Amino acid sequence: MAEMWINMGPQHPMTHGLWNLRVKVDGETIVDAVPEVGYLHRGIEKLCEGKTYTQVIPITDRLCYGSSMTWSHLYCTTVEDLMDLEVPERARYIRVVAIEMQRIASHLMWLAAYAGDLGMSVGFTYTMRDREVFVDLLQALTGARLTYNYPRIGGVAHDLPPNFERDTMRALKYMEMRLQEYEDLFEGSKIFMMRNVGIGILRSDDAVNLGITGPSLRASGVSYDLRKDRPYEAYEDMDFKVATHKDGDCYARYRVRMDEMWESCKIIRQAIQKMPSGKWRVVAPRNGPVGTGFGRVEDPRGEGTMYVVGDGSDKPYRLKIRSPIFVTVSAAPTILVGYKVADVVAIMGGLDMCIGENDR
Amino acid sequence: MNLYEFCYGILHWLVDLVNNLWYWLGDTLPWYFGDFFTAVGDFAASSGHLQFMTLLLESLVIIIVALINVLNFLWIFRKLSGRILDFYGPYYVGYRIGGWLQNLADGMKLFIKEIIVPAKADKTGFVLAPVIFVGSSLLILATIPLSENFGLSTSRDGGGVPAPALFALAMFAIAPFTILLAGWSSNNKYTLIGGMRSAAQMMSYEIPLILCVASVFLLAGSFDFVDIVAAQHDIWFAIPLFIGFIVFLVCLIAEVEIIPFDLPEAEAELVEGWTTEYGGMRFGLFYMTTAVRSYAGGALATALFLGGWQGPAIIPDEIWFLIKAYIVYVVFMWLTWSVPRVRIDQMLKLGWRRLLPLAMLNLLIAAALKTMGWF
């Protein structure tokens, strides 16, 4: 068969979100790939310039439907850096609990989508079912199920609801049981291993040169996690390991995310146990100072960065968002070439695309 | 009384009834009309006409029974997927019978949808592909008997198919041609890749499948399902030919294109594979035909390896046969919902490097058993 271009997207089951991957195939083998993004551009950065500092929080929730908590948290830390606010100790711990729950929910959604991509229906429904546990907890905490609007500049919106500690401990116990089940379900399946081991190898030097962060980088053997390397909130008090894997293939990316869920369970448990009492929010001034603020956190998908410029008014003069997925998408040609068409879903699915934050 | 005699009896009674009219007309009308009606009556009562109409009626009955089973299969498919995947499955349409009518409702919906032929498609091929696909798949069903008395192959006096098992496999093998035709004529890259995959897959899995069936033919010494089932009276062929049975099941999964091997319509990478451009009832026919082929696969496995309709005589033979076919289908579904799909090169490697040698070994075992005189 002659070489031909195939459009995978913008409306294609492989793309989780609205983007286009053009792959050039020779029969079934990929010889070239071009990612095209920008279908979901909503002008969020510009939109933020017309809102007050507080009104921006719900917009940053919409950056990524999979992990809205981390993005609004990132925005709040950025503005706190601009305003030089000191967040109360209790708020730091509550934030850690919330974003780690968000990380588990996000990774579970990734696992569900990944299993669905590979055609493993049972993996899809089971993981989505267990994601509900954490979505329910976040609903108890924030009142919303998808876009939480929970962190505030100078703390969080509410204190923990009644019985939250007990419910969380139960959920963690349940989750650790389920995680073991998933490992048996996925790694016990020979076909799953056939589809993952040795597929989509991303070498560590390539990953570093491309600027990839997050689980995809750690799966290539580079131990780089902002929670450990530049601890923010209460992470320096937490005892956890940075999950890494040396192979850099799809299986390594799967394994790293599974390990991160185990570690997140540990972190939540510690944060709940060490939770100090006190205030959970300080009142932030309405008008920001003239100056700049910078924040970086470890998103479930990589390193999220925000840069805010204040001009002394109650609105940000400029807000710049650095999305981890925008960088990861650009790795597509590097990873894909040489593999089969069927591997596109495994490889691109394994990178955990979230086009909302990518196109902004 | 078998199905042939039953249909023959009904037709004979019907023809006699109508012939009263023809002969009465022939007697009463003037000679130039009367002779015509008398000739019509004579033709209707002739043995050739009766035999032909009997076969037609018989196939109709068999296909209707098979299609009712296919509806059951689709219902099981949905309910079982719900049970395995932690959701309910259909229950609202046909509330009292567990949502059994849902498939009929879906069929109705598909009937009233517009039938679209893409502007740049090859019209002849595009229209012809579903017809051949559905027709050949239904012809598989026509040859598989549900019991000694319920099937076309039993009507050898009436001129049924001489080697029904062979015919069923031949009809099974027509599908890759139609899938390639559908994929090519749709003028779409996804369908083209799907069609090519399907052709490669079915051809490489056809050979171990036929080899496994050949070992059964060798042991039974016949191409007729009735003889094959009769030969399994003492022991099911699945036990001496265990390797062959497993290889046969794996090949069947590839032939009916369900999940570990549903590469031609791998929805994650090829949208809907070779059926991408088909909409409305044409898609419905493809969907139904997948279930028809699953049913045919289950029935083939039952007749060739699982002792067909043999079982304790508490329940009728036909029910025994259906129970076994349903169990094979349920095993297929169980597998479908719990494993991912393989890649095309892995699949071809599996077919040529593992299944083909195993099928050869199985044939060798069958030949040895036959030579030892144990069968």
Note the main sheet of chain A.
3 strands, antiparallel
Number of domains of chain A: 1
Q: Helix content range of the residues of chain A, please?
A: 40-55%
SS element count, helices of chain A? 15
Number of strands of chain B: 0
* CATH class membership of chain A: Mainly Alpha
Q: Name the chain pair whose interface involves the most residues.
A: A-B, 33 and 31 residues
State the total count of DSSP E strands of chain A. Answer: 8
The general outline of chain A is: globular
Overall mean pLDDT of chain A:
87
Classification by helices and strands of chain B: mainly alpha
Cα gyration radius of chain B (Å): 23 Å
What is the CATH architecture assignment of chain A?
Answer: Orthogonal Bundle
Could you tell me how far the N terminus lies from the C terminus of chain A, measured between alpha carbons in angstroms? 39 Å
- Looking at the structure, the CATH topology of chain A is Cytochrome-c3 Hydrogenase, chain B
What's the alpha carbon Rg of chain A, rounded to whole Å?
A: 20 Å
Q: Give the ordered list of helices and strands of chain B.
A: HHHHHHHHHHHHHH
Output the strand order for the largest sheet of chain A: 1-2-3
End-to-end gap of chain B: 30 Å
Order of helices and strands of chain A: EEEHHHHHEEHHHHHHEEEHHHH
